[in-house]
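User: Fold this; tokens only.

Assistant: Input:
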Amino acid sequence: MAIGISIPRIDARSKVTGEALYPGDINLAGQAYAKVLWSKRPHARVRVIDTRAAEALPGVLAVFTGEDVPVNEYGLITFDAPVLMRADVRHRIPDRSHQTPASITNPNSQHPRLFDSVVRHVGEKVALVVAETEDIAAQARELIHVEYEDLPAITSMHEAIQPGALQLHPLYPDNVIKRYRVRKGDAQAAFAEADVIIEDVYSTGAQEHAYLQPEAGLGYIDEQGRVTVIVAGQWAHEDQQQIAHALNLPLEQVRVIYPAIGGAFGGREDMSVQIILALAAWKLRRPVKIIWSREESIIGHHKRHPMWFHAKLGAKRDGRLVAAQVELMSDAGPYAYTSAKVLGNATVMAVGPYDIPNVAIDAQTVVTNNLPTGAFRGFGAPQALFVAETQMNKLAAALNIDPIELRLKNALREGSLTVNNTPVPAGCTIAEVIRRCAEQTQAHPKSTIHNPQLRIGRGFACGHKNIGFSFGAPERCEATVELHGDSEIERAVVYHAGADCGQGAHTVFAQVAAQALQLPMNKIELVVSDTASSGNSGSASASRMTFMAAHAIFGAASAALDKWRDEERPARAHYVYRAPPTTAMDPETGMANPNITYGYVAQSAEVEVDTETGRLRVLRLVCADDVGRAVNPQQVVGQIEGGAVMGLGWTALEHFVQRDGYVLTDRLSTYLIPSVLDIPDVVESIIVENPDPHGAMGIRGMAEMPLMVVAPAVVAAIYDATGVWMNTLPITPERLLSALERRLADTGTAPIR
């Protein structure tokens, strides 16, 4: 039995001893070094790029700009962003033209896009310098002369959609990338019948991923002549496809390898160093290495979407929900990245995991000159659930109904119609998760204090999160299993491209294989995260990797066993798992089957508020997650604890500040993430196991769930302690203290309940 056992992670020893190699640790003989010249401007047209002085510096091998990229565009969903900048005029040294070797030139490159010469955020890559040493590359970067024509910057979502606003990107009229519209029942008529209506405005901030290793990598030409990039990412085959597209190469001439990754959380889904490393290695025919500083990382990759909401919720006196209306807007920055999909998730979760007969939602994601935004653990659901659950807690207070009772009265159940007006996928367990969390919370008396300026409060929230890609996106996962031995299986080799970003995926792969093959763990060998050896796994995102990989590995193992029983030695089988199809939302009604299945989470928070300073401490966080079946319970607990702390950081500490398009918190001394002194005193992890009917061996994904509803639980606890509702995240001490002072001024009473 290999499933359900907390075996040590297979990479634990190498990581704690320092033997594990991350991209920045890997070197090849004769490697050169690269540096990026950043725009540092939020919006400008590039008139001149003069590279002559840089290229004349001894030790400089090349300076690349957008005109050196055959198809100068990239994008996970839409090719709408330039790899490097083009200019109206490019000054360079004629004999350093760095022509691409004729043997691998593809003449079918596209014409330059209209966006090639316009800088749209401060983290735009203008040029790439490659030199014999890192110091020379840094010196040469300073010698590049760029002339800009500054353009008006729009950094407010609301300003960007005003009539007559400057169009920031040629592909997006009205500065809107995507809109969604949901109409279920008749919300306006239902509000007229409601006894109580809760209506308010909310906003959430950006968040930096702050993963362990900043972007780094090594590009080279491998022994088969392939352009190869060693890098940290979340979807090796997608990286491969985007590199091949930008260089206009056949897919088989590009290879992507992931070593140890060092964290991702969605921040490595979009391109960072992949294409520029491949470009340099392809042009120069020698290894090229790059390592970004933390400051470069912070401006060089996307952030969590800031969002704005206007929400309205109506109910009868007994607590039965009758209507919900939500208007929401997200800041995409200048390019699409995954903003349309994030917006879709936020739309689906905007009224929470409840059966509401009448719903109206209008959502849009808007172009600005802030940093691009994209995937971040939760993928739009944390922002939406912060609003949905705070609305529910306000409703419970207005009706004087217990928040748990209110949720159980309205929770989705088998057969309930979702916001998309289709039945919730089988395996809906939100009601049980609510009860389990509530029981554990009530088992502990509320903390007591003896300081009159401190107040203790408790709050509750729950939510759901899709498992797998949504809205009709193709969903598949491949695996190959090879069995070796004579009369008995002596070893099994599992080939899988799935990324282990630190969540323990590779350990899970081995456990699933051992279970499927009925072999001990020491007979399982993994060959992972290399496009040259494995089929497409899909992304390590959307809480999908364990769910999808389990299907694929189990299928490949079963097929290999069949061949083994037929005396085939070695026995090798390849299997492609194709998940049940999903559908896009109808543009007028939002009707859809948007997701394969969901995971369910409930959390309670106990907080301490200092009413004199606004300081907030989370004393206890109880988190119940239905994971279907825990492959490795210890890893599940680790995910719960890590996700809860990350959610707390977004809720109360991590204040990412952009002003007029410039980043003011571009280092970890100004952008604060939780330290050991900021985490809850206690995180209680409740592993709920109801086998998911869609999952192999009942497995659900769960990596994002623990972050989902930390914010609304903490906000409800603050209200319980002080009588103050917080509608804006993050809840910094300044914001909390201001809210306490406003309540005192408005009511003339101390902010105490």
